[in-house]
Sequence to fold (315 residues):
Amino acid sequence: MNQPLFFEPVFQERIWGGTALKDKFGYHIPSERTGECWAISAHPHGQSVVKSGPLKGKKIGELWSENSEIFGNDPSSVFPLLVKILDANTDLSVQVHPPDQYAKSQEHTKMGKDECWYVLDCKKNAEIVLGHNAKTKEELSNEIDKGKWDSLLRRIPINKGDFIFVPSGTIHALCEGTLVLEIQQNSDTTYRIYDYDRTDEEGNKRDLHLKKAIEVTRVPYKRFEFEPIVERQGGNKFIQFIKSNHFTIYKWEITEKAVMGKNHLYYLVSVINGKGFLKVDKEDYELNRGDHLILPSSLKTFVLGGQFEAIVSHP
Fold:
């Protein structure tokens, strides 16, 4: 198949969600507490489907098992990545994700969860929780038991356009007034540490997972440092944010025609601003803000044009 695959997102309601996915992207959301857009997902908790073309209506999981040539016969046991947009209308729970080995042995899942965020928008003076101040596991456990969140948790300011890498074992939380595009391993395993004592409509607090959270948290915390690599082609700019063990993430800033060669099995593309086009052979495909697509293995060269920005990833 020598054409891009565009996908219909799946929306997830969350206690901390809002309406930014409708307000910013024009999506038809299920409620005013919509927290997540699962934009390119093969996870059983919500699978994206092809929105047009000969494979219309197919889930990514089906394509992975039945049309593996689309992904260059990627040897991974499951589709490896999950692309989301998160609307943190209020604070998310403070949480941590397990690494691969722990997830496989304790949760019997295929993988753990490294993730990263690109900040699409945020309120003035926005911040996130990223890391902690404990020097030992014992100190971490004691601080959690005593609820000393102000001294334990590290908070950092964020701005629109920031990129943040959150490897497994990192205590973290998005905070109120933040809209991010998240790219992660294809896992939904989360250990909550603190949820601000919130209750649902029935007065129930959400479960915490303190024992497992403490076991997987990296102590002491050390922020992962990376140096973006910037390439220019005329007026276009291509930024490689990070190349990790599980994914490589780019930002494409297109202002004029760009002739592109694809040197990986497949690309996951999310258009975050503007509009443009993708030309494959003699066929043009419109690209608009909020579109999510996969460029398959067979697509070796293509042309981009217009004025738009996209976040692009591959395993």
